[in-house]
């Protein structure tokens, strides 16, 4: 039935977000839990300068790689080109939280991030890409003696490691003491668990703009299917990016709930967000009428009414509910579209009998994100 297909598509879109949290996260958790909140100045103290940034043109400058104090060996030599350090694919097996493999049939290297995310690196391209976008690297990917060379910092930082350029020793130092459970590709915006207990991350630390800030009340399942999401976007059009964190508040058959947190880039305080479910319940009216094998649904949102009639057959199974209106609240997810924060809430007339989706579009007003508009759209039959 097309209705059921729509439900599967909806849940699959949410499931795209749920890949894996690293099994080695326990070491990271104890490391992060022991860290006090520190300032950006303290982060820079007594640390070598970041990975080489000087433009070295198109020439290749050989460089050594040291991971947690141990020099990494490979049949190919790592090098710096256009200010970007490239290392052979074989070296990345040392990093926790990721795996990289050469895909022979597709002629590209594919990176899997344990807590979620798949990125492709094609020889000759100066970008990495996932399903949604391309991420510039600053120099083209090459193959040296049959082994693809990959951008070290881009990959290492997604795993939760930091890269530093040691000018005196002419080498890049990789320091990985913890494993990220979420990150923004190409940046050092990352999330780390404070502690893990009873299958949950109890508290989460945000690394952003060179500062660590812990949020003890943030909770997310630690299983492989429910990683948190992190985005670094300007969603109030003030020229400054906010950290947008979506936590998994519950999932199961017919259920997928996200909890949204928005953090100010200057104060690191959370900006209140109006409850999406309350906004939908107060601004959407609906009715469900049953007549024989017919199901007539009317929804009014934003002053406009829309109707849909469903024809149920014996193959569809029994009507799972006698509700006289649509129910919202079992599927709530968030996205950023056209620079605005959006909440999407599936509407159903019974258990998992989803027929459409309410959209809540937010705008920042008086220091909080409020629901500017609430609309509804039926799924295709």
Automatic annotation (TrEMBL):
From what superkingdom does this record's organism come? Bacteria
InterPro entries reported in the protein's UniProt record: Cu_amine_oxidase-like_N, Mao_N_sf
Q: Domain named Copper amine oxidase-like N-terminal: which ranges?
A: 67-173
Using the record, list the residue span of the signal peptide; answer none if the entry has no such feature.
Answer: 1-27
**Protein keywords:** Signal
User: Pfam families, alphabetically?
Assistant: Cu_amine_oxidN1 (PF07833)
Question: Would the keyword NAD turn up in this protein's UniProt record?
Answer: no
* Keyword Signal belongs to the record: yes
Q: Which SUPFAM superfamilies match?
A: Copper amine oxidase, domain N
The protein's name: Copper amine oxidase-like N-terminal domain-containing protein
Whose protein is this, by species? Answer: Paenibacillus stellifer
Q: What is the lineage of its organism?
A: Bacteria, Bacillati, Bacillota, Bacilli, Bacillales
């Amino acid at each position: 039935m097309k209705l059921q297909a729509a439900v599967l598509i909806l849940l699959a879109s949410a499931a795209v977000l749920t890949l894996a949290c690293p099994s080695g996260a326990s070491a990271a958790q104890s490391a992060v839990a022991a860290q006090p909140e520190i300032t950006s100045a303290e982060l820079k103290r007594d640390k070598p300068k970041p990975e080489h940034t000087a433009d070295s043109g198109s020439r290749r400058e050989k460089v050594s790689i040291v991971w947690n104090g141990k020099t990494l060996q490979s049949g190919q030599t790592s090098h710096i080109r256009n200010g970007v350090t490239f290392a052979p694919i074989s070296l990345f097996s040392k990093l926790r939280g990721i795996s990289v493999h050469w895909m022979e049939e597709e002629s590209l290297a594919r990176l899997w991030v344990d807590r979620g995310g798949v990125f492709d690196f094609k020889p000759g391209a100066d970008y990495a890409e996932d399903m949604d976008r391309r991420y510039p690297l600053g120099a083209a990917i090459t193959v040296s003696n049959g082994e693809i060379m990959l951008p070290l910092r881009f990959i290492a930082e997604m795993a939760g490691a930091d890269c530093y350029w040691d000018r005196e020793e002419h080498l890049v130092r990789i320091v990985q003491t913890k494993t990220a459970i979420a990150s923004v590709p190409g940046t050092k915006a990352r999330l780390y668990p404070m502690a893990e207990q009873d299958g949950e991350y109890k508290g989460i630390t945000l690394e952003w703009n060179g500062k660590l800030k812990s949020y003890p009340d943030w909770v997310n399942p630690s299983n492989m299917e429910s990683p948190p999401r992190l985005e670094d976007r300007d969603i109030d059009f003030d020229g400054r990016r906010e950290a947008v964190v979506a936590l998994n508040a519950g999932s199961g058959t017919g259920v997928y709930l996200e909890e949204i947190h928005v953090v100010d880039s200057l104060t690191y305080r959370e900006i209140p967000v109006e409850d999406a479910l309350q906004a939908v319940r107060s601004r959407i009216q609906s009715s469900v009428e049953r007549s024989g094998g017919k199901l007539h649904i009317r929804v009014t949102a934003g002053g406009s009414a829309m109707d849909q009639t469903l024809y149920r057959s014996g193959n569809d199974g029994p009507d799972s509910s006698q509700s006289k209106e649509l129910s919202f609240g079992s599927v709530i997810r968030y996205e950023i579209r056209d620079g605005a924060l959006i909440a999407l809430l599936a509407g159903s007339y019974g258990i998992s009998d989803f027929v459409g989706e309410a959209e809540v579009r937010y705008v920042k007003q008086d220091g909080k994100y409020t629901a500017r508009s609430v609309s509804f759209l039926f799924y295709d039959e």
